[in-house]
């Protein structure tokens, strides 16, 4: 697909439409990659990072929170990213800047679908850093609780 003739302004205007279809696009891309690369998503890696803005103007997404970069006087957003064991993105979600890392794995959040990944692969395991691992407890339909490493 050659997009060299498409100007930045056209791309920026399309972002709102794309954002409305994020879930559908993400799922379609995941299924395509799964088929194309013969992916077995039995292990996923999850990490959270922050992106700060040179601004003090907060809104529903940009907000003040714990800054890993030491930028406590600037607003930020929190990004949760899931990759497979090859480093290919499986999903992501943006959270308000004041979101605690551990809260980004709440199973009622649509974006990350960690529980669904666990269930769809049956033997799936998520690898988290300490901040997320302690607060994430996926539901287990068999009645057994997932063990903590």
Automatic annotation (TrEMBL):
<feature type="region of interest" description="Disordered">
    <location>
        <begin position="115"/>
        <end position="149"/>
    </location>
</feature>
<protein>
    <recommendedName>
        <fullName>Transposase IS4-like domain-containing protein</fullName>
    </recommendedName>
</protein>
């Amino acid at each position: 697909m050659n997009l060299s003739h498409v100007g930045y302004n056209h791309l920026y205007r399309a972002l709102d439409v794309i954002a409305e279809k994020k879930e559908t696009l993400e799922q379609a891309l995941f299924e395509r990659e799964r088929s194309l690369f013969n992916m077995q998503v039995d292990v996923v890696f999850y990490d959270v990072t922050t992106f700060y803005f040179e601004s003090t103007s907060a809104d529903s997404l940009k907000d003040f929170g714990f800054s890993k970069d030491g930028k406590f006087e600037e607003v930020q957003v929190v990004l949760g990213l899931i990759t497979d064991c090859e480093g290919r993105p499986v999903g992501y979600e943006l959270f308000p800047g004041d979101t605690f890392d551990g809260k980004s794995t709440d199973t009622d959040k649509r974006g990350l679908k960690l529980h669904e990944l666990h269930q769809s692969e049956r033997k799936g395991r998520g690898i988290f850093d300490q901040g997320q691992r302690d607060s994430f407890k996926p539901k287990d339909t068999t009645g057994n609780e997932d063990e903590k490493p």
